[in-house]
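Morning run. Coffee first, then this:
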Amino acid sequence: MDLVPALEEPLKKVLGPPTAKVMAEHLGLHTVGDLLHHYPRRYEERGQLTHLADLPMDEHVTVVAMVADARLHTFASSKAPRGKGQRLEVTITDGSGRLQLVFFGNGVHKPHKELLPGTRAMFAGKVSVFNRRLQLAHPAYELLRSDSEETVETWAGALIPIYPATAKLESWKIGKAVQTVLPSAQEAVDPVPAALREGRGLVPLPEALLKIHRPHTKADIEDARSRLKWDEAFVLQVALARRRHADAQLPAVARKPVPDGLLTAFDDRLPFTLTEGQQKVSKEIFDDLATEHPMHRLLQGEVGSGKTMVALRAMLAVVDAGGQAAMLAPTEVLAQQHHRSIVEMMGELAEGGMLGGAEQATKVVVLTGSMGAAARRQALLDLVTGEAGIVIGTHALIEDKVQFHDLGLVVVDEQHRFGVEQRDALRGKGKQPPHLLVMTATPIPRTVAMTVFGDLETSVLDQLPAGRSPIASHVVPAADKPHFLARAWERVREEVGNGHQAYVVCPRIGDEEDDPKKAGKKKSPEDEAEKRPPLAVLDVADQLAKGPLQGLKVEVLHGRMHPDDKDAVMRRFAAGETDVLVATTVIEVGVNVPNATAMVIMDADRFGVSQLHQLRGRVGRGSAPGLCLLVTEMPEASTARQRLNSVASTLDGFELSRIDLEQRREGDVLGQAQSGARTSLRMLAVIEDEEIIAEAREEAATLVAADPELEHLPGLRTALDALLDEEREQYLEKG
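And here it is:
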């Protein structure tokens, strides 16, 4: 039988090429199955508008309403100078409010005939403001006639599904397309084993698809949602469980530190004791390293919780056991900095093969793209001979030329900045798969960790090391209270007067060419309200040096500077020669200057919550307390201000990451870059559905342990193949 299964039928065949093309280009839908899984965003009850008072600006909305009145006006314009221009204004109402629709030119004839007072219709368009009133210009509309058979049938269901739509394809056109393919839902293969489905009281998949697209009652929607949520969580967790299972089958060299070796010598040198958290996490890592399967561990730790120390001890343990360790950093500034701080912490233990080096010592090399040829040649030689036990580098480490003597451990810093291919390429440099430790300072709520990094075991460092100071954070409302901003600069001067240093962070560099592509972009209402570009490093540095911070040594740092210049600026700042560093978010990750105690973040509302938390972690790294001032011009009632208030009110990164997620919704959690154009989670809300995800993870682990190849579950295999098409494959590879 060569018949294509019903759900794999291309939409082109079913709906015709023009509609299929729009669906593929704008919604990423290619097959009947894709369309059936394009779920309604919400449901309108007949005659219930998105309350007109609540219409969101700049969004495509769909409303069901009745025409109250319609008037045709003529006017003169450049195109119709003799007063021949025509404008049709239609007012619609739903009982809760009124909304104006406008049609111009030749577009007035059809609506003028059809939109008579008393007519009910669905309208879709983009909400804009004209003369301080909300309006829809040239909305698409569909009349709701109660006479013709077909429409009565279609609209008889009291709940009208409203689909995520685009300007090219209105919700009801998607709805009609769904009605066309809905009969195929009967042939949907159920991925969940029957026993599991019945045990959880879930409806079968074909029934869930019918109920989500054509519900008769709200209970139908609930049934469908519980079932579809479970599917998403379960299929994803099975995919992750299979990866964990496959990884556990890979061979790896067990790396156990030798007694009285490099690690012992290093611990003896430490001027402080490790926190309980560091000891506990180190033990988890050492236990993993001692097994003959590759470790896959995610180390989450607050900014400054001492992750680097834990990673360094793991690297030393591997060197002790005769292997090499590589640390991958996202930027050159960070690679150089890690190199400096690791060499400093190790002292003579980092001087392997040199006079004055300790007997257990090894060599620590750095490898970045901008190194000179001679230094680079030497570093490559040290790696291939095994002379260097530890290498720290940017993605330059991944190039073909780089050969290791015996790579045993890969430490990836700030995971979210590395693609999958990069990490796999580095893993491929070991004779056998090396152990892998992934570190992130962006706290990830447990559920997201279970979905995004579900194939990694997780360790969390939540204590700050002794000697760390608290950071006070305050919002500075520059527009409402300009004197607060003046006071902020005074505070910076006071910190410098007390022998400390400060950062000023801006969203932009300031030497950008005006990009015509960007200029044409539609602005959000918040941008419109401001009418000004984000503040830029070069402008702000200039104004500060001539104004409120005159007489202080002010320098700039940003991503487009030459690597040597960046390094020189960082060295001067670290040495205390610079008072104030005006920078972009280059400093967000890993920059460590204990003497820097104050940070002023300009246009703070332009940064995400996690990013602000990361930036703030750069101050208060020494014994003096830290101060972080979040400057914004956003009005008090705005969501942007609430976001800043939440950052100012807590130093708990996990709490903030929850707030961040609730505000951004799921699509972003998995990061657009990581999952192709759209997220695979359509129904599951990562924050709210924590229990479902946790239960699905357990069920999946049990099932995969019993039947790793899913031989007895063909339906589940099919669902996995669909989830793991090209883009998903890459996104899961992130782990």
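The chain has 27 helices and 21 strands. Good start to the day.
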